[in-house]
Every structure is written in structure tokens, then in C-alpha cells.
Amino acid sequence: MAEQKILLRALAGETQAVPPIWMMRQAGRYLPEYKATRAQAGDFLSLCYNPDLAAEVTLQPIRRYGFDAAILFADILLIPQALGADLWFVTGEGPRLSTLTSQADFDKLGSVDNIHETLNPIYETVKILSRELPSETTLIGFAGAPWTVATYMIAGRGTPDQGPAHALMQENPAVFEALLARITAATIEYLSMQIDAGAEVVKIFDSWAGSLKGDTFQKYALEPCRQIAAALKERHPDVPIIGFPREAGEKYVGFAKATGVDCVALDNSVDPEWAAAHVQVDGCVQGNLASRHMVTGGQELVDDTRRIVRAFGKGAHIFNLGHGITPDADPDNVQLMIDTVRETVAAAE
Q1: Active site members
Q2: What global pTM score does this model have?
């Protein structure tokens, strides 16, 4: 059945009449059924670590919309927790972690060999999903990229400019690079175990790649992604990988070839016609409708959706947002987006 899944066909480079559709953060706070399940779990981390409930919220948008892929419900900061960092979430403000700013802090981290004890519930969620998803729906696993994960571990929270991580990079490069190496090794093991459990595709989210300029992008965004992709391809040669160096701008060009990923996800700051000419020439691309359209809807949503479908229509393309859907989104606008993708293709025939 795998060869019939249209998302896998796109990742293999096939141009399709109707692009496969899924949406970042599609199992999330904009859905009333998600809110009910999260209340049942008690809090966000309890939901992540409850395989039955995490599988349930992963399945909810598939039941509602029939997306072509389901992405595992988890969080990019579970790896720091598995390595020994303290992790908690503040309602309305987001994640908090114990900070890592010195060699002594780094020395407190656990071994990569020991992460699976913490992460086993995530693998169990993947196993449940691989059994329960519709046969035509592709299961995507994921992890945060080392740079993005490191920014949270160093600052103890999200920051507007990733300043604490840039400071440690300059002031103590030995600790900074040791941290990236530890996260990279853990990410390889984590994603490999997701694949063993049933993930058919994995995605590497580098949400803060855009703050890396010049050589630092090459060293700390591109190179770790290349290492992860190479290790996973050696173990699982038939499993596609999506890379998402968000806000990479012109550095999207050549990213797939340089890292070995099968698809490059694009944020909505890049023009789709430009991306088709300069990025899609190397293979499948994913994206890149602005998330705000899921809030505002209307004709602008329709027009931008049509433009993206047409721009990428001559090559392999997965339709998605340029970033995750936000909690204030209207579920009806998601349906409008899906309908517009399919109607645009039908109108062109």
C-alpha cells in the first residue's frame, strides 16, 4: 500500500495533479476536540506522554479533514528532557527549561544511550498510529533540529532573537559545540526509533535557522541536518526526510543537495514562484501558505492558496502552511484551504 500513498509519491519526486495536503500543528489548540482531550490528560506534557491520548489527538484532524498525512503529536523539547534537563510548561507563555550555560551544566546531561527510557511512550504512540491510521494516510515522525533545540536549552525558554545561544556560541564555543553534538546524536537515535515503530517519513524542524547568518548557518543548521540525514539513510535508506530550515531565505537554495533531505519545507516569507525556480528544481518542496489565513479566511486565503498550487504545479509539491497553525485559527478556514487546493487543480484541467 505504501507506494499508493500520494505523500510518499511526492517525496519520491513525482509531480501529481493534486498535491498531498497536511498542516503543521494540525493536531492542536484550534480544534475543540483537541481541547477536550488535553483537558482529559491534565496538562500538555501529560498528553505527550500518554500514548492513547497522544494518538487520539493525532487522529482527530485526519477524521475531520482527511489530510494525506498525520504527524505524531509530541514536542521538540522532549529530547532535552530525556537528556536530563528540567522541562515544564507555563500556561499562556510556553516552555521553560533549566538553563545550560557552562561546562558544569553540560556535564550534568545524561547519555544518549539512556534517552529511550523517557521517550518510550512516544514510540508507543507511533505504534498505535501505524495500526489505526487509514491505509492511505502517511505517518510522519519528527524532531527539532539541534540548533533550535539548543536555543531553548541555553536560554531556558524561547527568545525573540536566540541571543543567549548566540552569546554562548561566541563566548564558549567548546560547550556550545559539545551541546549540539549531543543533541545531534540523540536526534538520530530518537528518529530512528520512531521509524522502527512505524513512522514512514521524518521531519527535522529548525524553527530558528533564520537567525544563523553567514558561516554559522553552514556549521550549525546545515551540517547537523546533514549528519542526521546521513545516519538515518544508512539505517533506513527508504524512509524520506523533510528538512525545514525556517526563514533560511536564499539559503533554501541547494539545501536539499547539501543535506541529503528528500524535501525542503518552505516558510511563507519566500515567494512561491522564486522557490519553484530555485528550490523545487532540486526535488520536492513543501509549503507555504501563511498561517494567518487560517485565522482571517476569505478571498485572500483562496487567492494565495491558488497562487501556491499553480506556482509549484510543475514539480513535486506537498501543500502545507509556512509555519504551524495558531490556536486562534478557525477550523472552517482549514476546510476552505483544502477545498481550494482541490478546486484549483480541477479548474486547471
Answers
A1: 25, 29, 38, 75, 152
A2: 0.97
